[in-house]
Amino acid sequence: MFTIIGGDGSEYGPVPASQVRTWMAAGRANLQTKAKKIDEDTWKTLGDFPEFSPEATPAPPPLPGDSTVAPMPSAPADPKAIADEMLARAEKLSVSGCLSRGWDLWMKHFGRFLLAYLVFILISAALAFVPLGSLIFGGVLTAGLFHYTLKLLHEEEPVLSDLFAGFNEALGPLILAGIIVALLSVLGLICLILPGIYLLVAWQFTYPLVLEKKLPFWTAMEVSRRVITHSWWRMLLLMIVAGLLSLLGLAVLIVGIILTLPISMCALACAYDSLCDAKK
């Protein structure tokens, strides 16, 4: 299984060698395309792998006037393979570490968070007055909030429009993810409380996986479930603490929410970074 970097800078895979050869034959990848095997950490070019050597696979002719690698077509993703790769690189989830790291992030960028989360809360409140507005667009907004927070965590320079990245980059999948996650979680709570609680925790990373990793919504849900299951109790404790902080904010109405919600999201973003974005 191989993961490659397309011309748009995004990762595609893991997919079998046969799929990579199909991309090469279509001119969407070449021997200079960066790639790695699922059980390796080092990025190489496709030409460095014997499976794609010139003797094994003729190099496709370059596209006229364009030497870059075109974006990959959508390919079925294996949730288990993706989750296993993430878990192989993942750090041990530390509740106190996520809270401490999240607090530091919030304090370092207090002004930016204050503005961004005020906009988020106002839009969320407006959607509450639109029939099914929160159900349809809640996941899209949450993904944007993750996106904005992760940019600050990775010391990038976010702009306010990053809160709406989900609308531009993955609107359909995020809407579907939001609806399916909500409905199945509620169904789990109605039928049996424990399955509902399990799913509510296990699907916490669905939205950032759709937006950040460009995964299909169902694949993102399954990857999130598999990754979080390995640290489910720690993730539950982190969410409880984050929830208590939000309740504390509710006690002092809108001002408190603006101050406490960023801490909760920062902690969850740190958890996502530890489990899904760890670099080793």
Verbal overview:
With 280 residues, the protein is mainly alpha-helical. Helices cover 62% and strands 5% of the residues. It folds into two domains: 2-76, Dna Ligase, domain 1 (2-Layer Sandwich), CATH 3.30.1490; 86-276, no CATH class. The protein contains twelve helices and four strands; from the N terminus they run E-E-H-E-E-H-H-H-H-H-H-H-H-H-H-H. The chain has a four-stranded antiparallel sheet with strand order 2-1-3-4. Helix 4 (110-127) runs antiparallel to helix 5 (133-153). It is globular. The relative contact order is 0.13.
Average residue-wise pLDDT: 81
Overall shape: globular
Number of strands: 4
Distance between the termini: 19 Å
Short key terms for the protein model shown above:
single chain; 280 residues; Dna Ligase, domain 1; mainly alpha; four-stranded antiparallel sheet
List the helices and strands and how they pair.
Elements: E1 2-5, E2 11-15, H1 17-25, E3 34-37, E4 44-45, H2 79-89, H3 95-108, H4 110-127, H5 133-153, H6 165-169, H7 171-191, H8 193-202, H9 206-213, H10 217-229, H11 232-251, H12 253-276
Antiparallel strand pairs: 1-2, 1-3, 3-4
Summarize the structure.
The chain is mainly alpha-helical and 280 residues long. Helix content is 62%, strand content 5%. It folds into two domains: 2-76, 2-Layer Sandwich (Dna Ligase, domain 1), CATH 3.30.1490; 86-276, no CATH class.
